[in-house]
Design a protein that fits this description.
alpha/beta; Methane Monooxygenase Hydroxylase, Chain G, domain 1; two-stranded parallel ribbon; two-stranded antiparallel sheet
């Protein structure tokens, strides 16, 4: 058995040994669900133009493509490898749409220095010590909270608890201390910038899931186990604003295939 494991799945053995200190030749590997793909994203039409609201209005001159975009070809549950559809097909369509859009157009000049200075200020602020909290500890705390409160099965009470914890972690973020003060290849700084962004995404996911009082696709609520097409056959639009998350909805366009109950 040991030879088979080391020849067929050496990577799995290495990960089990590295992450939890288990020798998978002699001990069973623990298995748990994890997030590897975000089924939402920046809302776009089939040409990659970013949609502003639930009325279908567009953001002028703004496009998105690939796995950051959500043209919504997968519905509420994406099968493995289907990201190729978004990346290849709609990536090509978006590139062609951008090419057509910029033809014979003039664009206003942008005050690049203003945005560069703003980015520099953000980094300088992070590099300055504000406390003793390490970024890896806060990131692990966020991951554990999302796994517990926004996992495969959710309910209102547990998601509200997760939102409360997230608000506390957002306050803790201002007390982080970066040990690495280098200005090149600073992985700790990158992790700090990424954590700030994924905490925003986590808050959007929890808020959207709380507002969707049904189960649909990968969104499975123990307190609302049934799908409710009459009320929730629509896309969720989440806006991150200064006063918190605002939720709106976008109707689902059904041309050929009516939604049916999944019986497998």
């Amino acid at each position: 058995a040991g030879k088979k494991i080391m020849s067929r799945i050496p990577f799995c053995w290495e990960e089990a040994h590295r992450l939890v200190g288990i020798d998978a030749v002699d001990q069973p590997m623990p298995v748990r669900p994890t997030a590897h793909y975000c089924m939402g994203g920046i809302p776009v039409n089939t040409n990659g133009q970013v949609q502003r609201d639930g009325e279908g209005n567009l953001v002028e001159a703004l496009f998105s493509a690939g796995e950051s975009a959500c043209v919504s070809v997968h519905g509420a549950n994406r099968l493995g490898s289907n990201s190729l559809l978004e990346c290849v097909v709609y990536g090509r369509r978006t590139g062609a749409a951008i090419s057509d859009y910029i033809k014979d157009r003039t664009f206003a000049s942008i005050d690049e220095k203003r945005y560069i200075d703003r980015a520099k200020e953000r980094i300088i602020k992070l590099m300055q010590p504000h406390g003793n909290l390490r970024i890896n500890a806060l990131r692990q705390q966020w991951q554990d909270s999302m796994s517990e409160h926004c996992g495969v099965f959710r309910n209102e009470a547990i998601m509200k608890e997760g939102l409360n914890q997230l608000q506390t972690m957002k306050e803790q973020y201002h007390a982080i201390k970066l040990d690495d003060q280098s200005k090149q290849w600073n992985q700790e700084l990158i992790e700090a910038l990424e954590l700030e962004s994924i905490m925003v995404v986590g808050e959007m996911i929890l808020t959207s899931a709380l507002n969707r009082k049904e189960s649909r696709g990968a969104h499975s609520r123990e307190d609302y186990p049934d799908r409710v097409d009459q009320e929730f056959l629509k896309h969720t639009l989440a806006y991150y604003q200064e006063d918190g998350i605002t939720i709106d909805y976008l109707p689902v366009a059904i041309d050929m295939f009516e939604p049916k109950e999944r019986k497998y």
